[in-house]
Amino acid sequence: MTTHEHSPLSLLKAPRFAPFFWTQFAGAFNDNIFKNVLMLLLAFRAAQPGQTDILMNLAAGLFILPFFLFSSLAGQIADKFEKGRLIRMIKVAEIGIMCAGAAALMLGSTASLLALLFLMGTQSAFFGPVKYSIMPQHLDPSEIVGGNALVEMGTFVAILAGTIAGGLLIQLPSAYAALAVVATAIAGWLASRKIPKAPAASPELAINWNIFSQTLRTLGYAKKEKVVFLSVLGISWFWFLGACYVTQIPAYTKNVLHSTEGVATLLLAMFSIGIGAGSMLCEYLSGKKVEYGLVPIGSLGLSLFGIHLAAAGSLPVPEAPHTLMGFLGAEGSVPILLDLVLIGIFGGLYIVPLFAIVQTRSEESHRSRVIAANNILNALFMVGAAILGGVFLGPMGLSIPALFLTITLMNIAVAVYIYTLVPEFTMRCLVWVITHLFYRIHHEHLDKIPSEGPAVIVCNHVSYMDALIIGSCCRRPVRFVMDKGIFNIPVLNFIFRTGKTIPITAKRKDPEVYEAAFQRIAEELEDGQVVCIFPEGKLTRNGEIDTFKSGIEKIIKRTPAPVVPTALKGLWGSFFSHKDGTALAKRPRRLYSKIHYTVGDAVTPEEVSAGGLHSLVSELRGDHA
Q1: Which strands form 563-569's sheet, in the order they lie side by side?
Q2: pLDDT digits (tens, 9 = 90+) for 429-456
Q3: Which domains are assigned to the chain?
Q4: What's the CA gap between 356 and 213, in Å, rounded?
Q5: In this entry, which stretches build a coiled coil (predicted)?
């Protein structure tokens, strides 16, 4: 497993992240206190007989509606202005809304509370694009996944805590709920005052106030990059699944598990805890980079445990509904709890890399507008979840387990569709699984590989796994130049082709392939990509680094770019190396070996020479092959 220099939890102490984290946590917490108090008021106190369902659905719609109406405007504003100040203004607005909300709670005015819920949704719609676009400005590339993991964990913990707090506060005099929402809004504003400045990405932007035309334009920004747009769709799909589960848990508890409200709270807690744990696990497994190979693993887990939950069936009907302790003692309760935790965990593995892809692959000048498009689609998918649940459980008469099975089968279909359109996800998944199945990878100084612009990585060549290991470590996509024989190895060929690997052969063997390879290398560098070559031209036969060929000099002379020397250690003697016989032809002697990948300082184009790079790579490798 990759070794981490710092825990992501250390970000909670960092002035450039901690104030933002607690600001967004307080906002999510307050939203859910207010929403839950209002929902319970509508359900048990404010509504006339027969009007409860209408008012509760109206409330849900009023909170989501602003995301459709104002996200496009919010994205423009977030790109045009300094984000720290914007967040503070949004938090001031929240204080005003909550003061009005406190008065409405004290007076018991249902109409006022519904109007204020719409304003809370509006405030959240304006906060969303700033929330995710500010992180890449304050975090290093190695911290993006950890930052997203913390935000996702914090959001779901805040949702759970706010929901529970709302349920407790509704049992007390209205003054307590009024005080809680105002105090939480003030706490969020105080935290926001310490958020560092985040300069405007597009200060010259002319804002389009036509929300309808701008909404279409905003969705167009997300569509510019296929991987980004499919990531946005993937995020929205997760919110669809999450909304289906969370919305149905109360009725599932009552009608299928024959249990009390306390059991519903426990189920919601298990789901939220699972997402928080999965988000943090994602950071650990990612090795401080955007590891989108975890997304298919997340999809697989969501599908497997979704099917298992649907097949769990109902608990025996008791004389009286199961209390919390009665539920925990009932046969079949533990697998249901585990299913919800594991659905949450795999959901965390699924959603965190997708958010990181949207943040890192969107152009900075309109990143907030891409995130606004994400919010619009999230809201649309959540409405779709409500409609699907209403139709399937109403006119169609399906049971809740049947609904769970239906959305799981839909999840499988969505996964197949996305991974067929973008095989890069499947390729990265295979790379991650293969490298982590055979090796424990320790890497050093990955930050020395330029975060943008063209660069050439050179490395010693020890085994058939070298490219997979380097590709799994690097935070940017890498175009590998490799011998055509290795390129054609089954299974690995899919990975290499999908990763845009450049096959090459000796000039005397096939001049066309040789020249085509150099042409492709030049094109990739001109496009600002990272290219990796193994200057020895073949796998080592004795564990030592062979002479570097002059091809690297030809490459840099044609397309000048910095060259980064790197070294692999610990692969000599593995099943994929030539030690004690031809690679892949002998019995494996060890699994899960510890290997090292070390990166040195970049060499300027003017200083590049095959001999000089050989010396640098040899020094990085040392005596350990």
Answers
A1: 439-444, 593-599, 563-569, 455-459, 530-533, 478-483, 502-504
A2: 888 888 887 788 888 888 899 888 999 9
A3: 13-207 (1.20.1250.20), 224-421 (1.20.1250.20), 439-621 (3.40.1130.10)
A4: 28
A5: none
